[in-house]
Write a structure and sequence with these properties.
The protein contains seven helices and five strands. The protein is of the alpha+beta class. The strands form two sheets. A three-stranded antiparallel beta sheet has the order 1-2-5. Helix 1 packs across helix 2, helix 2 packs across helix 3 and helix 3 packs across helix 7. The longest helix has 18 residues. The chain is elongated and about 60 Å long.
Length: 153
């Protein structure tokens, strides 16, 4: 097994936001290759999401986003398991990103939202992005209702 330096772990953690131990494990498994390690974390996030399916997400946050023009906006309700996670900056950022996605892409329902290309990285879907965030947060996360508003007159 390749020895992974503290600096590699710190750098990888700053890129992913995942815990130090998970970063170390992923980097070790990928033998220091950060691209492979990110894929390992993505799979880990999917496993975590699968394990969390039986849990109840009854806490959460309502987030709004108004585009710079002031003519397009969106609100999103995002659920998680605990109020502790709902108050974290990572969860707040996730809510904001999803509200921006809804404003930009106007999905009809949750299924369409999760299958859309993520606006900040079109190489992945919103569902992929959400899975990565679940790995960071360590809790079940569910998209509740959302709505997009636009001035069209």
């Amino acid at each position: 097994m390749k020895k992974i330096s503290i600096d590699q772990i710190k750098d990888f953690r700053s890129q992913t936001g995942v815990s130090v131990m998970e970063c170390k494990k992923a980097l070790e498994e990928a033998r220091g290759d950060s691209k492979k390690a990110k894929e390992i974390l993505r799979k880990l996030g999917a496993l975590m999401l699968e394990k969390k399916q039986g849990k109840t997400a009854k806490e959460g946050r309502v987030e709004s986003y108004i585009h710079l023009t002031g003519k397009i906006g969106a609100t999103v309700v995002l659920f998680c398991e605990t109020d502790f996670v709902a108050r974290t900056q990572d969860f707040k950022n996730l809510c904001h990103e999803l509200a921006m996605q809804v404003a930009a892409m106007n999905p009809k329902d949750t299924k369409e939202l999760l299958s859309q290309p993520y606006i900040r990285d079109i190489t992945k879907t919103v569902g992929d992005f959400l899975t990565e965030e679940v790995a960071k947060l360590g809790e079940k996360v569910e998209v509740g209702e959302f709505r997009r508003f636009e001035i069209t007159k």
